[in-house]
Amino acid sequence: MHSNINTLFECLWDNYVAITPSAHKIHRLLAGEENSSGIINDHVAFRTFNLGKTGLDKLAAHFEALGYVAKGDYNFEAKKLTAKHFEHPDETQPKVFISELRVEELSETAQAIITKLVEQMDAAAVTEDNFLYSGRHWEISKEDYDTLLSESEYAAWMAAWGFRANHFTVSVNYLKSTQSLVEVNTLLKDAGFVLNTVGGEIKGGEDVYLAQSSTMADRADVDFGSEAIAIPSCFYEFAQRYPMPNGKLYQGFVAASADKIFESTNAKS
Ligand code: OOG
Ligand code: NI
Description:
Elements: H1 5-17, H2 21-31, E1 41-49, H3 56-64, E2 69-76, E3 81-87, E4 95-101, H4 108-119, H5 142-151, H6 153-161, E5 167-171, H7 181-190, E6 203-205, E7 210-214, E8 219-223, E9 228-232, E10 235-241, H8 255-261
Parallel strand pairs: 1-4, 5-10
Antiparallel strand pairs: 1-5, 2-3, 3-4, 6-7, 7-10, 8-9
Helix pairs in contact: 5-6
């Protein structure tokens, strides 16, 4: 496990931008060329399968070792996902959102494919320093990917990409140029980036103390054994938090909005 938070997030970022070139460009667009360290991350998100070797708790352990504490629980009935978010006592550190697919709720066929993938993984891998950005620990065919895709986009994404940051999230509150999510979205669209419009371009708002938007995932090549094919990789998110009646900025997530953010890895239609 990493013993330094900043090093961990740097490794996660490098691994993420390697297949998400848009995030790199947007980071520069929002921060200005000379000060690209001026972006504060609201949160970073991870996905996994709820099998013994790969459960949410295995990913969480890396963050708990660094002082993160579990705060919120979320359930996504239709997508068959359970999620938790974690916060660090140092509020300048990004929050962490981890979801896991309840594999036992999928069809027998999908379960068999996923079990076969995870069987290929060395159980010791989950405690390695690099686990959270170690990618896939299995071979997968395009046929199995397509089978999973027809049932669960999340399952297919996870099977193809493995363990890595699914997205980083810009904290709009701490941007120097603008603190308006509407303005950020306009800037992004003017620069040619495609936003996730499922449930509207902005999910949530001041009434739930959190407004979010995201790009649609980039595409990057995945090795399917006999061929490499470009599929949706990762996206970039933008979050604006509002003060609660007690004056503090809301720190949780909003399940109804998150449900739509997950769709940012759908193939663009
Ligand atoms: C996570 C989607 C939820 C949020 O900020 O609500 C989320 C995912 O796509 O893996 O990140
Ligand atoms: Ni997010």
